[in-house]
Design goal:
This protein has 8 helices and 9 strands. The protein has about 260 residues and is an alpha/beta fold. The termini are far apart.
């Protein structure tokens, strides 16, 4: 029997409770919309967690039982407790995959793993976003053509304050003329990370089939290949070591 891929979809679940427009688009929350299309895949197990749950829903047990963490945050990055960030970061370094979506670029977890500002320029208007697939050979882009378009989205523009990606998967162009590195991967420790730009809360982006396909592909790409706990053991030698020459000399001198 195949072991299911264990996915946790984390969301703030704040905009949906404060903004009627967002609630109309995502009545159960963006996290449940994302979890819903992931659950349609074979051999996966999907749970959700939100900011206002105890420990933000990311307890030691939950993270230990998570192969890939999908993260959406925006208005409450500062409310995420540092100890939970460190707990999730440790799991990524051990091997857990991380999919960071849209405004998660400013999440404490993302900045802690990348070590940079992760800042950018933005505009919430009525831009069309055209995402160019520049890695058609990559597992994340399978089923995606040369490009796809999102009719209305928030603009993100360069410069994007990230370290040079290990792989650049998508580049976005916006009606206003800006471009943006909108699909990027990194490896940190033993964990794979994918950042995917689209997903502003006031647009129906997560209902779009191409966006769902990319996230689904990314989750499978990011699944752990190993899980190596972060320890620093004292290691005994495999073979007998020769005697320390200095100690041997001191011993000889002492006998004279």
């Amino acid at each position: 029997m195949t072991t299911p891929l264990r996915i946790t979809v984390w969301g703030e679940y704040r905009h949906e409770n404060k903004n009627p427009k967002v609630a109309a688009l995502y009545p159960q929350g963006m996290h449940e919309t994302i979890a819903g299309f992931l659950r349609a895949q074979p051999e996966v197990s999907v749970r959700t967690a939100t900011l206002d749950e105890p420990e933000h829903g990311l307890t030691e047990t939950v993270l230990a039982e998570t192969d890939v963490l999908v993260w959406w945050g925006h208005m409450a990055h500062g409310e995420v407790r540092d100890e939970v960030v460190e707990r999730a970061k440790k799991r990524v370094l051990e091997g857990m995959g991380l999919i960071m979506l849209h405004s998660g670029h400013y999440a404490k977890l993302f900045k802690a793993l990348l070590g940079t500002t992760c800042s950018l320029k933005w505009r919430e208007a009525n831009d069309k976003e055209r995402l160019w697939n520049i890695r058609p050979d990559h597992p994340i882009t399978q089923g995606i053509g040369e490009y796809f378009e999102i009719p209305s989205e928030e603009m993100y523009g360069e410069p994007f304050g990230i370290p040079t990606p290990d792989e650049l998967i998508f580049i976005s162009w916006f009606t206003g003329g800006e471009v943006f590195r909108s699909g990027c991967t990194w490896v940190r420790g033993n964990g794979r990370i994918f950042y995917f730009r689209p997903g502003h809360e006031t647009y129906p982006t997560y209902h779009q089939p191409e966006v769902q396909r990319v996230i689904t592909n990314a989750v499978r790409w990011a699944k752990p290949t190993v899980c190596i706990p972060d320890v620093c053991p004292n290691s005994p030698p495999i073979e007998a070591l020769p005697e320390d020459p200095e100690r041997q000399f001191r011993s000889t001198v002492g006998h004279k």
